[in-house]
Amino acid sequence: MKLFTVLSGEHPTLPAAEVRAILEAESMPYREVEEFPCLLKFEASRKALEAVKLRAAYSRLCGMEIFSCKAEAGEILERCRETSFEDFISPGESFAVRVRRICGAEKVEKPLELEREIGAMIWRRVKGVKVDLKRPEKLFIGLTLKNGDFLFGVSLWQIPFKDFSARKPARKPFSHPSTLQPKFARCMVNLSRVKRGGVLYDPFCGAGTILVEAGLIGVKPLGGDLQTGMVMGARENLLHYRAGSPLLMVADALHPPVRLVDAIATDPPYGRSASTAGRRFEELLEGFLNASAEILSDGGFLCMASPLEAGVPAMAESLGFKTVEKHAIHIHRSLTRLVVVLRLK
Ligand SMILES: C[S@@+](CC[C@H](N)C(=O)[O-])C[C@H]1O[C@@H](n2cnc3c(N)ncnc32)[C@H](O)[C@@H]1O
């Protein structure tokens, strides 16, 4: 199937990387067709789409492509005339047509008129369908892209915004100044390429944000922290969000009392809002990476966040890891966070 995902503009590279990592994690064969700002086109099965729907944090809408052409009304209407809409909507179903631009693309001329003309065409051609602008059963969507192209398709799902906002740090039963945003934590889980049913270990779990996001998609969360208060807080959060049975321990990430985990996703303390318990950050990092190399199962990935200047990729590579991908995120004037995905060489 020709599919597309509308990506969040929250970061230039993480959203598309997350979709690719999900497809890899779930062993879904796919062929990437093209990447645009805020849009990824790929060919895969409907099952692959289900995985993206269940897991992604930075995808907003996913759909099936009907056609692509230049973002010019005459050409768009011509392509619509050639389309067999009955392949995409059945008699009796309700529908709406929406035309939007994404990520700073030029607007198509008179988008509302275009929506109406396409809607009228569908209504005339497929008997018994009805327009419902509020809650359509089928949403046809036209997107103008940055390069002047237009993609027309049918939406298969949209992410309800509320899903993540209910887990923002301020709304969690337990949080701390170092608590991550849930979307970012979910993205880290996905980048670690852990399968549903696999075990994800967060050795610096804090309030358990990464573990909650892992548990909610059917990954088994396993966590540790040096502070008892954090472990208790993480347990409270995992139970509150029904994110799987919490397997948590008070433990030093440099001496993990666990063996063979499928993936690691973590956010070590940099000594700013979270304490390193008196260790230098470099010492903590080296000890943690060495310990991770011992417990990561064959082919397993490690996804971690750290300040850019900490130089994690170089240190990890000197310890036998390979850098699979990295993404820099500007947080504020004095912090650029680097998300790094590692695998043992
Ligand atoms: C940046 S915070 C993690 C925040 C977490 N990702 C969240 O969203 O809540 C880092 C955590 O590492 C813990 N920590 C510091 N040194 C540790 C060590 N050697 N082993 C395990 N945990 C440690 C701190 O107590 C702190 O809770």
Description:
The protein is an alpha/beta fold and 345 residues long. The chain is 30% helix and 32% strand. Helix 6 packs across helix 7. The chain is elongated, with a radius of gyration of 23 Å. The mean pLDDT is 94.
How would you sum up this structure in a few lines?
The protein is α/β, with parallel strands linked by helices and 345 residues long. The protein has helices at 14-25, 46-55, 73-81, 111-125, 162-165, 182-191, 209-216, 228-240, 281-295, 312-318, and strands at 2-7, 31-36, 39-43, 59-70, 94-101, 130-131, 138-144, 149-158, 199-202, 220-225, 247-250, 261-266, 296-307, 321-332, 335-344. It is elongated and about 70 Å long.
Lay out the secondary structure.
Elements: E1 2-7, H1 14-25, E2 31-36, E3 39-43, H2 46-55, E4 59-70, H3 73-81, E5 94-101, H4 111-125, E6 130-131, E7 138-144, E8 149-158, H5 162-165, H6 182-191, E9 199-202, H7 209-216, E10 220-225, H8 228-240, E11 247-250, E12 261-266, H9 281-295, E13 296-307, H10 312-318, E14 321-332, E15 335-344
Parallel strand pairs: 5-6, 5-7, 9-10, 9-12, 10-11, 12-13
Antiparallel strand pairs: 1-3, 1-4, 2-3, 4-8, 7-8, 13-15, 14-15
Bound molecules: S-adenosylmethionine.
S-adenosylmethionine binds at residues 176, 178-180, 203-204, 206-207, 209-210, 224-227, 230, 252-254, 267, 269, 274-277.
